Amino acid sequence: MFAARQTLNQASRRCFSASARQASKVTVLGAAGGIGQPLSLLLKLNPRVSQLALYDIRLAPGVAADIGHINTKSEVIGYDATPSALAAALKGSEIVLIPAGVPRKPGMTRDDLFNTNASIVRDLAKAVADHAPEANVLIISNPVNSTVPITAEIFKSKGVYNPKRLFGVTTLDVVRASRFISQLRKTDPANENITVIGGHSGATIVPLLSQSGFNLTGDQLAEYVRRVQFGGDEVVQAKDGAGSATLSMAMAGARFAESLLKAAQGQKNVIEPTFVDSPLYKDQGCEYFSSNVELGPNGVEKIHPVGKITDYEQELLDVCLADLSKNIQKGVEWVKANPGN
Ligand SMILES: NC(=O)c1ccc[n+]([C@@H]2O[C@H](COP(=O)([O-])OP(=O)(O)OC[C@H]3O[C@@H](n4cnc5c(N)ncnc54)[C@H](O)[C@@H]3O)[C@@H](O)[C@H]2O)c1
Ligand SMILES: O=C(O)C[C@H](O)C(=O)O
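^ thats the input. predicted complex w/ (2S)-2-hydroxybutanedioic acid below
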């Protein structure tokens, strides 16, 4: 009782529904940011979410007050930027989404964000390990190719690493891949499901158009692949210094969270692409790799193999693996050298 009251006092509580249903608590770390706000909004609209915990180093109580007025049943709580409030935001959470960190400006690569975002993700990963060690953890903060290994190393160091529950969110790449092919072929993107494998930056993003029955060739194929690989740059340039993709990313993050909740609640055949601890290319230095993954109540249920690909796609994959292994190694080595407090 005392603990519960203390928790309420520590958090700036915005609670607008008394009826917490059967638990599906979802926590967003970085909830007041460009992604965090629309992501939180979409989660508030999701009837599978019973409690939404919003944490940021600024403004989370305000965002929670605003979103909490939406007339869906879930309870929304905004937390101040204190360690005890962070702990309360995480406690009992089934899904933790992490979009905390800085976005790119024109001329930057995702790897240029490493120096700032690595320590943000490391410190949040420690809090997750301490207070929500059994949650599904969804890493959105870039560079995903390195922030996922950083998170895994922190979990390993704290003895709570569960490779089935750590996910790099690469959903936006398949969202773009289906949208871009539909624009070329004048089809409904809802019916286009393009497999994308690898990682989440530039040449590590490998769309496998051949597996979807499309037969683009020459410049049209090269341009399509380039657009999927550098779709993020399109948004960064258009925003002209004001950040990177936020709204499409919020949709992609909410879709992934929804898939996890569906799988946790017993739905079968829930498949999403995601960057996970994967056996597929470990022998080539890539401990983590994104491919289609079947989700279940325990997180990763089955990692699908890459399947048949063309020679052209194999060349893309070779370039991907060379870059990706370096990005992964960079994260692992950094966290060993910078374990934090
Ligand atoms: N995985 C993807 O597909 C994908 C897509 C788009 C963007 N991103 C990445 O997501 C990240 C966030 O992008 P954004 O546009 O929302 O940025 P933003 O600057 O608008 O928001 C980031 C938020 O994180 C908060 N924050 C910073 N440090 C924190 C900490 N220690 N704890 C809690 N919150 C903290 C900030 O206060 C801010 O509200 C970037 O790294 C970006 O590159 C990834
Ligand atoms: O491009 C970025 O930096 C953000 C994100 O990774 C994206 O793909 O839009």
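Residues 29-30, 32-36, 56-58, 99-104, 113, 117, 120, 124, 140-142, 144, 169, 172, 200, 243-246, 249 surround nicotinamide-adenine-dinucleotide (ligand 1) (CB under 6 Å).
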